[in-house]
Amino acid sequence: MKQLGLLLLACILAFSASAQRANYNIIPLPKEVKVDTTQFFTLANGMGIAYDESDAENIRVAQFLQEWVKQATGVELQLTAADKKAPICLSLIVLAKKGKKSKQPVELTEQQKESYTLTVNKEGVLISAYEPAGLFRAAQTLRKSLPIAKGKSVELPYVQITDQPRFTYRGVLLDCGRHFFSVEFIKQFLDAMALHGCNQFHWHLTEDQGWRFEVKALPDLAKKGSVREKTVIGPSRMRIYDNIPYGGYYTQEECRDIVKYAAERYINVVPEIDMPGHMQSALHVFPNLGCTGGPYPVAPHWGVMREVLCGGNPQTLDFLKTVFGELCDVFPSPYIHIGGDECPKERWQKCAKCQAKIKELGLTAENVQVEGSDGRGSQDGRSAENKLQSYINHEIEQFLASKGRSLIGWDEILAGGLTEDAIVMSWRGTKGGVAAAKLNHRVIMSPNVFAYLDHPQLKDYGKQPRTTDSYIVSCSKIYSFEPLVPDELTKEQSDCILGYQGNLWTEQVAYPEHALYQLLPRLGAMSEVQWCNPEQKDFENFKARLPQLKKLYDKMGLVYCNEVE
After folding, report:
1. CA–CA separation, 201 vs 194, rounded Å?
2. For 211, left (φ over 0), alpha (ψ -120 to 50), or beta?
3. Other CB atoms within 10 A of residue 364 CB
4. What is the mean pLDDT of residues 237-254?
5. Using 50, 70 and 90 to split pLDDT, how confident is the model at 236?
6. Is 39's pLDDT higher than 80?
7. What pLDDT, in 10s, does the model give residues 507-560?
8. What is the Cα Rg of the chain in Å?
9. Domains contained in the chain, CATH given
């Protein structure tokens, strides 16, 4: 009997080891999962995926799903027309307003546009959504549920998943100004974002250390402004350089290619041209736009530079409108980021043109506290110079509005008074975001201590590549963040919070492998803050689900930090 029992156990273990079975404990966790682990639908080679052949987006999602199933499991599915019987079906739901005989579309919320249901039963797999974006999110959910193995079939436990994101803005920033990353890598970065349900790629395109966006009306801007003669090695304060020229920029054709690739994954590309500070690479090419006339080298080290665009020179606005005009032609994003951070006013205080413009506009200082990261206000409050920056912001906001776009700026744009429809990205803690929401301005939370991915993720610095080291941004730290700041905002003010964004600055991140290591698996923790309701979150449970996602990272060739703190 003992031998028979051991033989039976061996058979059971052998079957379990050979079986490929899906697991719906994924990241980010869907809103509602009702699973029956006693019943299974078997997904096998040759089965069909039914889709609407008349809809290009539907076709693309079906192709993605086919590719992902084969990549994970080796199971090869066939694409078939929607009017033919198939065990896997992608279906768009058509809603009509109540009481109307005609199929007049119902206006959906932004969250509903990405909502979906995923059903597995004896009939097969049914994916339903109101819009193709929802079909795509559902396909990603199924992808992440699949085992990473090779075989002829996969067991899918019966399930009913109902899901939609918590926030409409779920972003990640990649800084390509300090270090240039190839188009191929950016596509890999976008694939990682899509895997985690992100929908906004904030592309930081210009910096003191390099101008990366081609402006056809100003060809030398990228050709000359993208190249620095050398780069600081180690801490910037030590001023030790490698003496190796460094450069690279994106043509408009390459930018359009990135926009298309992102859009196919339901990610919007938010381009950033940071101004009027962080502009030394532009001043290198056009020294007449600075307060002193230069010369200005493309900055070889990191930090906040005192050389900024001249606020009193009328050519400054002409230059900015030329740049942002071409930017809008290339990027269809409803949001355009103007930076607005870290713009020292030392030059403006001594510049005759800036002071003349201040006088012309009748700008005067106010004794007003402007919220910053510590809640004590900026050093100069609403100075006349800060108001001059707000004047420039207003001019660009009006220009962007004429093209149907909304302006986003870092929370320093609060200092001179907000322009009419500006969106505030709060990075110096949450104080700036709270202040903007109380004024009924839209806000994206991106506080450095919860969102800056250039900082270490482990306490032991020796276990990770060297990077910015002033504080640690661990997975658990990110996971603990609550973007709505409920103790300080009313329900109406909380509705102004569009979402949450992580930022990967690259002063100390020069290579793709390092960038991915900084991103993952912290993006997994961030995705649950962006996607899940607070009551769903449990960090220990998140860690228990993470190994399954890491197997997919490996399959996709993504580098990641293997430890989680």
Report:
1. 10
2. beta
3. 11
4. 96
5. confident
6. yes
7. 999 999 999 999 999 999 999 999 999 999 999 999 999 999 999 999 999 999
8. 26
9. 20-97+104-163 (3.30.379.10), 169-556 (3.20.20.80)
> How many helices (DSSP H) and strands (DSSP E) are in the chain?
19, 17
Which residue type does 107 have?
A: E
Task: Please state, in angstroms and rounded to a whole number, the distance separating the CA atoms of residues 201 and 187.
Answer: 11
Beta carbons within 10 angstroms of residue 169's beta carbon: 27
Q: Which amino acid is at 487?
A: D
According to DSSP, the residues that pair with 241 across neighbouring strands are: 232
Pairwise CA distance, residues 209 & 227, whole Å? 8
If you count them, how many residues does the chain have? Answer: 565
Confirm if 528 and 478 have CB atoms less than 8 A apart: no
Name the token pair of 59: 């076709």
Report the 3 state secondary structure along 292-359: CCCCCCCCCCCCCCCCCECCCCHHHHHHHHHHHHHHHHHCCCCEEEEECCCCCCHHHHHCHHHHHHHH
Tokens coding 213: 């966006």
In DSSP notation, 13-68 reads: HHHHHH--B-----SSPPSEEEEEEEEEEEEETT-EEEE-TT-HHHHHHHHHHHHH
> What DSSP element (H or E) covers 522?
helix 522-531
Task: Name the pairing type of β-strands 153-163 and 116-121.
Answer: antiparallel
Angle 296-297-302 (CA atoms, 0-180°, nearest 5)? 110
Burial of 418 (0-12, 13-18, 19+ CB in 10 A): buried
- Contact criterion met (CB below 8 Å) for 371 and 435: yes
Confidence band, pLDDT 50/70/90 cuts, at residue 151? confident
Look at residue 235 in the predicted model and tell me its pLDDT.
80
Decide the pairing of beta strands 206-207 and 210-211: antiparallel
pLDDT at residue 355 tops 80: yes
What residues have CB less than 8 Å from 441, skipping those under 6 apart? 418, 421, 422, 423, 424, 496
- Give CA separation, 360 vs 311, 312, 355, in Å: 12, 10, 9
Q: How many CB atoms lie within 10 A of CB 298?
A: 25
Give 551: exposed, middle or buried? Use CB within 10 Å, 0-12, 13-18, 19+: middle
Longest Cα separation, the chain? 100
